[in-house]
Amino acid sequence: MPNKIRVAELFAGVGGFRLGLEGWKKKSASSGYTKSVKSVYEVVWSNQWEPSTKTQHASLVYEQRFGKDGHSNEDITTVDVTKIPDHDMLVGGFPCQDYSVATTLKNSKGLIGKKGVLWWSIHKILSEKKKKPKYIFLENVDRLLISPSKQRGRDFAIILKSLDDLGYAVEWRIINAADYGMPQRRRRIFILAYLKTASIYKDLKRCDPRDWILNEGTLASAFPVTSNELVLPTEFELNGDIVEISSSFNKNGGASLFENSGVMIRGIVTTLKTFPEFYGEPVVLNDIIQNGEVTEEFYINDKDLDKWRYLKGPKKEIRVNTEGFEYNYSEGGMVFPDSLNKPSRTIITGEGGSSPSRFKHVIQTKKGYRRLSPVELERLNMFPDNHTKLDGVSDTKRAFFMGNALVVGVIEKIGLALKEKIENEALVQQV
Question: If exposure means fewest CB atoms within 10 Å of the residue's CB, which of 172, 281, 363, 382 is most exposed?
């Protein structure tokens, strides 16, 4: 095995993947950055570009923490693939968009939906690189498995077929970080792919798919699961090319064929509903809050409390739309204040700012009700304290970063499990 696994990080944000794989100052996220970690991963190239903002705040934070060497702050759709150094692993949390295909990937008019669908930027790198990365590690929102609503699962099927065409086998799992003791209830799909020249590909090919999902796979090693022994996995083949899949997959609009766990190799999909298996002590919101260090602007004025209670409370009322039409509106209530004895709710991008909101976190302290601070939001994603603090970056923007980020501890555990498999691969080759 080489001394380092060279990594290219796309859609880097403020560096969650990098923190999980490399650690921070040689310390691990799962230890709260107190214990040393010997990382085999080295990010040799990264890209972060936010098309909707003039000032590239996330990229500035990334550069401040990790340096400018090997970092690209340009639209990934315009990057010359030959300028990206060879790497062993491609990682990234790519946006969930409309992945429809009309004709061919070579014809830009063949992409239906928002211009510049970023999955195809990943595909372009994998297609054009003479030396393809052996490993791919991706993250996305869990609704990817059920999108779009009229062809549930089609988008994920397109991604799987694309990777199959490029010579990769795939395993995936929806993981809720809190199910494994981490401080935030954040559900995301994690996708690992292995090039056919990698020994892990050959191991997966030889293994019973159900056994890989439950015991032998990288994700099973990182995050143990169980399943209903009486339920058999669903198995099906991805027939046709990606254009045909785009137009015909689950055309009847039934439930998605994809369960929360699965594998795909040589176009054959095996998917199974699994359940987390964890017996450790959970980290709860109370474990991460700051005591006596939060400034006054995060406390809620008594006169605004009724607005917060109304927005978070249950509603059954008549409303009038902009055209004067009356309609019945109802929604359930939310816990107010947020429980300190459980992992937090999912952080959203609109978490920052002082205006009352249904979805922002509010906790009760001896001093009164308050919102969460940027440091507390960082801790919920297992980032180092003040990782996003930078001159010119507002607290609202810092909250936005964390709403877009991932839970670093999940990346760390998967990275360690993958490292072990790669090391075993190297040992086998030496025998």
Answer: 281
End-to-end CA distance of the chain: give it in Å, rounded. 13
Q: Are residues 230 and 111 in the same domain?
A: yes
pLDDT at 109: 39
Choose, from 1, 60, 96, 166, the residue flagged as catalytic: 96
Domain check: are 216 and 307 in the same one? no
Q: Are residues 102 and 213 in the same domain?
A: yes
d(CA 58, CA 64): 10
Is 207 among the residues known to form the active site? Answer: no
Residue written as tokens 């605004």? 304
pLDDT tier at 305, thresholds 50, 70, 90: very high
Domain count for the chain, please give it: 2
In a domain, 285, yes or no: no
Q: Which residues of 66-105 are buried (b: 16+ CB within 10 A; e: fewer)?
A: beeebbbbeebeebeeeebeebbbbbbbbebbebbbeeeb
Task: Specify the CATH number for the domain of residue 356.
Answer: 3.90.120
* Type of residue found at 408: V
Eight-class DSSP state of 282: P
SS3 396: helix
Strand segments, DSSP code E, in 242-390 are 261-265, 268-272, 275-276, 315-320, 326-331, 362-365, 368-371
What is the C-alpha to C-alpha distance for residues 64 and 42, in angstroms, rounded to an integer?
17
Q: Which domain holds residue 389?
A: 290-339+348-404
Residue 242 in contact with residue 162, Cβ under 8 Å?
yes
Give the pair of three-digit tokens for residue 46.
């990264």
Query: Can you tell me the distance from the alpha carbon of 409 to that of 21, in angstroms, rounded to the nearest whole number?
Result: 10
Closest to 88 (Cα-Cα) out of 7, 10, 18:
7
